[in-house]
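Re: Re: ligand-bound prediction request (bumping)

Still looking for help on this. To restate: I need the protein modeled with S-adenosylmethionine bound, output as structure tokens. Inputs repeated here so nobody has to scroll up.
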Amino acid sequence: MSEPSRHIPVLGQEAVDLLAPRDGGVYVDATFGAGGYSQMILSTPGSRVIGIDRDRTAIAGGFDLVERSGGRLTLVEDRFSNLAEVCAAQGAETVDGVVMDVGVSSMQLDQGERGFSFRLSGPLDMRMGQSGPSAADVIAVASEAELANIIYIFGEERHSRAVARAIVAARTNAPITTTKALADIVSKVVHAKPGEIHPATRTFQGLRIFVNAELDELHLALSAAERVLKPGGRLVVVSFHSLEDRIVKNFFNARGKTGGGSRHRPELDQEAPSFAILTKRPITAGSAELAGNPRARSAKLRAGERTAAPAHAGGDLPAWPTLDTVMGRR
Ligand SMILES: C[S@@+](CC[C@H](N)C(=O)[O-])C[C@H]1O[C@@H](n2cnc3c(N)ncnc32)[C@H](O)[C@@H]1O
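Reply:
Sorry for the wait, this slipped through. Here it is.
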């Protein structure tokens, strides 16, 4: 990692302690970012890390750490929903641990040209990777109802209909292509009281999650991790808001449940638990970490240890708006 100071790994110590790396173990850091977690895992001699990030700049920033790792760190630019395929391509059909620190990185947020921040001027991009439609593309073509849904479901914005109406009215005059233009449009219809978050916070979050299919990615990656982990291998997930945490919590609840069926009610038979839950309640940042890093405020960590039971069936994705339905048909 070239500039460790650019990013303070949130709940890093707790995450790596739960991952419990050991000499000879293979670990997936599914969200490499600035490499904070990877660096901590690699401090266990003889451990190997496969680092994944969909952001090319994060992968490029990690080359230094690859060199320093003496062949123990491999970096792959990909989406973490592909983590089973990534591991197989690296010769690791099974692994000893998977850690995920999901969401946007400080580096992405702090670079105005990436378009994630309503506080910095830049193009309305918001893509973590370098391909696919940007937030400006979505804003240009989504219907008013689709925009309201995206902003309501992924941004949890109660005024989503008013925001969508304002966006559609504004785009008939001129394309909305900058963070500032969108923030100004939202600020005219959502009013924050003193001390409340910026009025555009939820709209930006909703669009970002949609543009990067973040919840689908998380849902798919959890199942992929379940398939590649060895018995005794650990899955550690740090999430940043309630939508993500709900997916992680439901995943571990479903995988950690012990049988509900009986001889008399075989229809209630359940699949054997594929994880033993290691965190009855989510772990959150302590006061010392919060003082140094306010972004850790909403972080929640959940972890489980893989049992020897087969992986459960993946389950359907919830029926929320997707890039394919909104962009694909045009
Ligand atoms: C919060 S940062 C991780 C920081 C890292 N733990 C560290 O210590 O530096 C999240 C990273 O995950 C990446 N990311 C988010 N969603 C992804 C996905 N679906 N596939 C691959 N990478 C993803 C982002 O590009 C970002 O770099």
